[in-house]
């Protein structure tokens, strides 16, 4: 095998010499942009709408995953978002008029209790001073009056809080909770929508690794597409001709098994040298640097498959 690889450059060089052309050239293969569609969730495949090799348009459904669990989780998230919105509206509305009326009634009740406790204390205080009643009874009356006054202040503060409405900080917290719940619901909706796997671009189905009923793990490739209407040539440009290769330059592409040249245009060439496959090394080029380039083909190459070897000639 190693001997075959060592001889391949010489064989290619002889083949190129037989072509009888002195035009600068580079070797490579036909390629397509590959798009991998990963599994968004570990769910069972319930429908496959395409087959391998079929052409698809952008947005076309390729396959569907079971959505029972994700749909239920999405509904829970949506209901939680609605609950948070209702809670925010309650904070913004403030206390009900009935609640404020109840707080006023409670304030009036404790005020009455405070007046009664204060009056009792005023009655027993002189009696205690003349030692007509026990000192402990006077102390209890004084404590009851003080406790009643404290209850009045507490009821007044509670009424004032209701009348002033909800603090801005609590409303801000409610708004943040609503945004968080809505974001969670939106994320679940996106996951639910991804269970219907669609083609992001027009192309051809290259591979469907899983079959109907399979349950792929999260991130596993459910479908692989070859995007674009035609392949492009990926070639390695030898260092001696790199300076004369420009983006937009017209070239001639020769495909093994296809008669005649296919017009092409250089769409990209790397500025840094890269590793060169053994099949792209020709004669003296084996000791030189090569630069990866991509050649866009015309409509004449639309029906060509990926992987075919190509030879690109640059105008001298």
TrEMBL record:
Major place of residence: other
Locate the coiled-coil region(s) and give their ranges: 62-94
Signal peptide: which range, if any? Answer: 1-17
Q: Name one Pfam family in it.
A: HH_YBHG
> Where would I find the YbhG-like alpha-helical hairpin domain in this sequence?
71-193
Write down the superkingdom of origin: Bacteria
Q: Where in the cell is it found?
A: Cell envelope
Keyword set for this entry? Coiled coil, Signal
Q: PANTHER family of this UniProt entry?
A: EFFLUX SYSTEM COMPONENT YKNX-RELATED, UPF0194 MEMBRANE PROTEIN YBHG
Q: What is this protein called?
A: HlyD family secretion protein
Name its species: Lysobacter yangpyeongensis
